């Protein structure tokens, strides 16, 4: 029995039971243990159970294969190559996952309407499915099919799709094994629908551009980002007409920006685009810009600089001044993050000259962005007054061009300058202004950084409870955005909150996982320093020394003299406390 519809002429008991739904990972694990025993549960078994998406039949068949002696590692390897075909212990529908799925795909309801297979093929390429609301009409027009709602009802009736999400934003989705089956057995239908699906997403991206402040764009694009990456990866593995390549790279530019905006940092799509564009210097250089942007968000400045230097050189060779200026701006910002301020200033000044050369009559956003980067550089040098003057002008320019994200960033850095001045009241005003602008712009990262600054200000004011609340909110945002660097900054301050509240155990629980991360940045060094302080307070001097020395090495690697000074001061305090304790305890 498959799907929702029960066979007629059967005296069903009342009330009717709902169709069997998918199982949770824990439920799947229990079935495997019951059939194949506890010792079959390991890393490879868990991977298999995650891959088969909770389908009861698939779980039972996997458990049967394990019970009958196949090793889970071998089963996972075969799944990676043959997918649904391996979930097979016989030739009937109850012993073969493929046969079970095929019963639905080839059912009379499906064969009566050939368009059902077209929609099934299109949905099989979308890991996150498709929204059930008004945008279904756009998919219908894109695929050239009629009555998409009745087709979806058929697919739902024969259990090939299901509805996920909330009542406000439901989505039509296929379980992963069914997607794999369709990709294998509906090759012709996929070939027919794939170009239309590509055009649908390309048109969506080009219409939205970078305008994530628009709530309609935000609601249309953000749920589709993973789908778009899947479609674009398949696209860049196929043959592409030269006339179409530029349009696809332009759409990839928008997709990369939207991806970083929501914290989705997959490089796979751009890696394929780099290969596809290697014969076209302009498009290839743009792809290097895109991948550099992802490295920047991950704070991998070494790889970012490598790609940005290549991009800038390519653009210079083909006299693309504006693109070269953009690459140099990002390069300058990267050097600044590596504390190479002179190199950063050279790159930013060259970028500004190229922008000015192209436009001497009016202020443009790229020029304002360079001025903002220079202001941050002056702040890093300790030239507070120069940075403040720059930022006041930058903020006015962002207001003129109605750039809310730029206004958020500039206002936030003004708050940082007043923190450095020690003017905490003024700093709090700017941080709150930045927070309100970020909310208006639907700019989650800006909300996080504003809350982070407010937490820092409250710490300076000894308002520990307020600091704790602001920093906890910031940490939640940065976790949702997968912003590791900002998580490290916030966790460092939260550690201080706990230590100052004599909650040493809570501080250790929070800090240790971040201290153990393989994150090679100065931000990790500050977390290690706070851990060293924590263990000094708790009298664990061996642990304190270990973490402080690790922090010192990182600061030395990045030539962070201020960070080195802080660590050395903590080491000195630790040795003094250790010696005092030794004298107090006596021989």
UniProtKB/TrEMBL annotation:
> What biological-process GO terms show up in the record?
cilium movement
* One Gene Ontology cellular component annotation held by this UniProt entry: cytoplasm
- Keyword vocabulary terms for this entry: Cytoplasm, Repeat, TPR repeat
Q: Which InterPro entries match?
A: Bac_ResReg_Asp_Phosphatase, TPR-like_helical_dom_sf, TPR_rpt
Subcellular location per UniProt equals: Cytoplasm
Q: Does the keyword Glycoprotein apply?
A: no
Q: What is this protein called?
A: Tetratricopeptide repeat protein 29
Q: Which organism is it from?
A: Pholiota conissans
């Amino acid at each position: 029995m498959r799907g929702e519809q029960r066979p007629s002429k059967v005296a069903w008991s009342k009330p009717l039971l709902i169709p069997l739904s998918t199982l949770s990972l824990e439920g799947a694990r229990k079935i495997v243990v019951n059939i194949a025993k506890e010792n079959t549960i390991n890393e490879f078994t868990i991977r298999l159970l995650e891959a088969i998406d909770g389908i009861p039949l698939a779980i039972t068949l996997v458990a049967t294969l394990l019970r009958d002696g196949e090793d889970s590692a071998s089963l996972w390897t075969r799944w990676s190559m043959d997918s649904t075909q391996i979930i097979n212990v016989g030739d009937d529908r109850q012993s073969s996952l493929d046969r079970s799925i095929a019963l639905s795909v080839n059912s009379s309801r499906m064969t009566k309407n050939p368009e059902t297979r077209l929609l099934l093929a299109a949905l099989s390429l979308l890991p996150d499915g498709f929204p059930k609301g008004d945008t279904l009409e756009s998919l219908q027009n894109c695929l050239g099919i009629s009555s998409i709602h009745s087709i979806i009802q058929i697919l739902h009736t024969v259990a090939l799709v299901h509805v996920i999400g909330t009542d406000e934003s439901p989505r039509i989705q296929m379980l992963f094994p069914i997607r794999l089956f369709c990709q294998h057995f509906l090759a012709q239908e996929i070939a027919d629908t794939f170009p239309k699906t590509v055009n649908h997403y390309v048109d969506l991206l080009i219409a939205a551009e970078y305008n994530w402040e628009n709530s309609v764009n935000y609601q249309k694009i953000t749920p589709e980002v993973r789908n778009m990456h899947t479609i674009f990866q398949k696209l860049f593995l196929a043959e592409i007409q030269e006339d179409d390549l530029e349009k696809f790279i332009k759409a990839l530019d928008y997709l990369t920006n939207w991806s970083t905006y929501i914290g989705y940092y997959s490089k796979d799509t751009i890696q394929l685009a780099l290969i596809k564009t290697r014969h076209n210097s302009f498009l290839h250089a743009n792809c290097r810009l895109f991948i550099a942007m992802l490295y920047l968000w991950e704070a991998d400045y070494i790889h970012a600089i490598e790609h940005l230097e290549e991009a800038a050189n390519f653009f210079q060779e083909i006299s693309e001044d504006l693109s070269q200026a953009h690459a140099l701006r990002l390069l300058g910002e990267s050097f600044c993050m590596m504390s190479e301020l002179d190199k950063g200033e050279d790159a930013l000044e060259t970028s500004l000259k190229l922008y000015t050369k192209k436009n001497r009559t009016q202020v443009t956003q790229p020029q304002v962005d360079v001025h903002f980067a220079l202001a941050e550089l002056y702040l890093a040098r300790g030239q507070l007054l120069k940075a403040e003057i720059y930022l006041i002008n930058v903020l006015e320019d962002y207001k003129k061009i109605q750039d809310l994200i730029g206004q958020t960033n500039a206002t936030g850095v003004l708050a940082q300058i007043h923190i450095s001045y020690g003017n905490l009241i003024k700093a709090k005003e700017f941080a709150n202004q930045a927070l309100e602008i970020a909310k208006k712009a639907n700019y989650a990262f800006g909300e996080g950084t504003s809350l982070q600054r407010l937490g820092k200000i409250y710490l300076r004011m000894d308002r520990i409870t307020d600091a704790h609340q602001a920093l906890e909110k910031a940490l939640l945002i940065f976790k949702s955005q997968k912003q590791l660097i900002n998580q490290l900054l916030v966790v460092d301050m939260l550690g201080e909150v706990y230590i100052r509240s004599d909650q040493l155990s809570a501080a250790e629980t929070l800090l240790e996982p971040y201290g153990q991360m393989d994150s090679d940045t100065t931000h990790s060094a500050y977390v290690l320093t706070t851990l060293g302080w924590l263990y000094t307070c708790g009298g664990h001097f061996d642990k304190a020394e270990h973490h402080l020395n690790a922090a010192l090495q990182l600061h030395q690697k990045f030539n962070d003299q201020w960070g080195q000074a802080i660590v050395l001061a903590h080491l000195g305090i630790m040795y003094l406390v250790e010696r005092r304790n030794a004298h107090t305890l006596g021989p």
